[in-house]
Amino acid sequence: MDIYKKEQITDYPHLNLIRADYKDRGGMNKSWLYASRQNSAEPDAVVIVPFHERENKLVLIKEFRVPLGGFQYGFPAGLVDSGESIVQAGRRELYEETGLTVVNVIKQSPAIFSSAGLTDESISLLYVACDGSANIEHNEASELIEVKMLSQDQAVNCMRQDNILFDVKTWIVLDRFASTGQVV
């Protein structure tokens, strides 16, 4: 495969549409449209996997997502601001979306991609131990969030419900937690 031209079709601050022209294995000219957040080689966003150690519960959020036209279960997440580290962004986003504070960073992934057929967006998963009382006082007006704290048994029951939409990363971590009681 040989990408010989990229054209930015839109011009927005956080997401743009790109057309890439390339030659396939057979030498045929093709085009691919995708969404892009890329401004650097660093992850664009952080997804925080919070475990409330005092409560022994995994923290999720139930958030209204416009593209789905409904609610999705996921983890707190957000874009990494300029000059901010993944850990700093994770601390900020966890607090803004749940009111909880990071007490310990357990593990950080490298840049990973969740839907490479549609976007070049990269994220870093940040596994953390957290503390505090959940609240949504610091949510932005565009965020409609409900904080969920699930025990292992509650995670099992949650996964059995047919009416819940899950983020792919959340499904994988929740499945592990439901099976083993561990997040990492």
Automatic annotation (TrEMBL):
Entries under PROSITE patterns matching the protein: NUDIX
GO MF term list: ADP-ribose diphosphatase activity
Keyword Hydrolase: yes
Highest taxon of the lineage: Bacteria
Record has Transmembrane helix as a keyword: no
GO BP terms, alphabetized: nucleoside phosphate metabolic process; ribose phosphate metabolic process
Gene3D superfamilies: Nucleoside Triphosphate Pyrophosphohydrolase
CDD domains per the UniProt record, alphabetical: NUDIX_ADPRase_Nudt5_UGPPase_Nudt14 (cd03424)
The protein's name: NUDIX hydrolase
The organism's taxonomic lineage, starting at the top: Bacteria, Pseudomonadati, Thermodesulfobacteriota, Desulfobacteria, Desulfobacterales
